[in-house]
Specification:
6 copies of one chain form a homohexamer. Helix content of chain A is 40%, strand content 18%. Chain A is α/β, with parallel strands linked by helices and 160 residues long. The first copy, chain A, has a single domain, classed as 3-Layer(aba) Sandwich (Rossmann fold). The longest helix of chain A has 17 residues, at 95-111.
């Protein structure tokens, strides 16, 4: 039997139903998953890095024995190597995603030849869902309950 | 530990270095791989279905204990179900591929909810390689040795 | 108030839940819709042209006062002109669709300057649905009840 | 006869010949059009929000009885609902546009089920025209008279 | 000074205003251009290979000292090598084109390392023009005078 | 014989093996190439404009008689015109590139009708290489020696 550790990196600001859907699909394929939460590239994230790690751990608590949620900085290839991951998991929704992901998979293959990138596609209902859109709707006070877990809603309500 | 059986379907007319590269990437991620060879949709395939199964088995013989090569007809979702596969493996090279693959992954999810599709991307040197181009070059007597395994070359020479 | 007649052309082999969804979206925007059913370009259509016209009329019978279903041949621009249509309605699902549709909209604008093409997008659950996939599943005896109206299912059962 | 109010949202910094072309195509299809001008996301817009509203009203003054030009903030779905719009009008030029637009149409459908998004495509001569390119050329003092209405040119000359 | 011979391959069934536009752009960049006309892949071409060679020669007769029009079969890389061409010229209109062209350029680079592929883009008015659409309109008796040279029109009239 | 001067514009922060590959392909096709280095749009470039000009001149010194490296500001069409260039050279890697490049080629054709844009595609090994990715890896102290010339490496080491 294989021993596979997959890293699933992202900013997850916020963690959407689409991210959650991907983890639920991947959890039976790998022995262990590390959700690696990156600092936000944009100026004003909706949630701080710590809040995001907390939220994801709460949403995925039923898998706590197999899924670890942790912040990371630096190069993903280095992080994966340090943590013994041999698989990188990414979601693919759109053509624009696709080209960026092809580029990153190619670069990571050069930086970390033992780390293989595999892609999952979301259920249709999450095909057009993105964290940036959820963020924008939340900032205008719109209803995002169809897009995120109740844990995220509760945190948002404390914020606004 | 997981028990994962992946099906890798295709026409493989011929099996290229790109297909081979994908199998070599996937072989350590899953417990077992079934290479499922479909009848060719086009009129004049380069190799018959039997020849293609033979060629692939020969190219992948070092993995004979973990990889099975077999012809299939009918719906892939049914085939995967009968064979106990829980993963479908596909290669992604280009945007045009991508949309067709998204469509098939979505349809297969409806037909076989337990079968999860995951995508691999090829090494750059195989990004622009396709079986149809190899077929065309071979028919005009061009040199395809950079694109296929020596086993395929030997079979082609017997043909022409 | 405007007086708008929209033509919605297609092969509709078969008419899917995606096509039906589009018509339901368009029916309140235009005064009248003509569903124009083209002869199939492929060799073996699932349903004959007459059968397809019948099926669509049956599926859309609740709108019979505002929607006409009719076969057509020749240039769409000519057909639209003869029938007094000033709008062409098309569905957009994928990037590959998109470029073909841009091309056709551009050509039709040259052939029929008074005919304006507008595009609708399907509900997510139909984003990856296409008549060709339904056709293929039906031919292998797979279950297509999630993709088409019961009228189509009934007709298929009489066929196979 | 239908009673259709369409909202056409955008930043319009500046309003180009492509935007104008779209409005001229849409004006005969809907009873009323609201051009909804958003605050610019970027730091230094070419024209202030007020200037943009003025310019567009001037360019479209021949349709003043059927077209309203107004600033808006907040969620577009809310704005459309408050104003009784049942159609959202968007232009589609390129594949990159297309995916973003599919995403927004999908999200808006969830936020406002009664608001239907339809897409128009520009005349070929405006296919590659974008407000950001016009802005860049204008800033370097290049000639933008092929890309915008004389009203915009006049305003630019007062600026530089 | 460079000595450049460019080959411009295609089926050209028929030679459109878009093809002509590309040649007019390329003629001043290279010392010599060989328009290489391929046998049609489809069953029923509009014009025979000989007719197509004649038509193109007639349309481009003003450049007869620098442009040669000739049929070709077999591998393009071999043809280019035999004729001493060091440049391959291709037109790019759409994303779908683009991926196929990337693939061919990559394969040809492997088969003929001295042959460099360069791409031209058409004037906007020809962005959505394709030989297959012209062929379809011509077959239905539609007006193609905006899309092809009068020479092609004259030939079509003799045909129908 | 033609007299062709090509301008190859870019930010080149840093100049990658992909940029270098393109110049080596283009150098035999044109009489003269001007590498036009633009000020970086982003806030913190890896190298200053002067450094970038120096690096590129050093990397391409073997072609010093035919290639000039120079900074530029303002509109590219104006720059090309002032310098007597009749060709603009651009690299095409991905679909996302492609649409932006089509737009720029179209706009530049309007601003400078005598300047023809031609596109080159990179060797596969550089298909997924971009300056922004190199920049990011370099900032995290990752190994970029597969992606840039030793000259760039030496400069980076002096920096960090």
């Amino acid at each position: 039997m294989k021993n596979t550790t997959a890293v699933y990196p992202g900013t997850f600001d916020p963690f959407t139903r689409g991210h959650e859907d991907l983890v639920r699909r991947a959890v039976d394929m790998f022995d262990r998953i590390i959700v690696a939460v990156a600092a936000s590239a944009g100026k004003g994230p909706l949630f701080s890095l710590d809040e995001r790690v907390d939220i994801i751990a709460e949403v995925l608590q039923e898998f706590a024995d197999r899924i670890e949620v942790t912040p990371f900085t630096g190069l993903l290839a280095d992080f994966a190597h340090r943590r013994g991951a041999n698989v990188m998991v990414r979601g693919l929704r759109a053509v624009t995603d696709f080209e960026y992901e092809m580029q990153m998979a190619s670069i990571n293959r050069k930086l970390a030849p033992d780390l293989e990138t595999v892609f999952f596609t979301p259920t249709e209902q999450y095909t057009f869902l993105s964290a940036s859109v959820v963020r924008e709707i939340a900032r205008f006070g719109g209803d995002v309950s169809a897009f995120v877990h109740p844990t995220v809603i509760a945190r948002l309500q404390r914020k606004f």
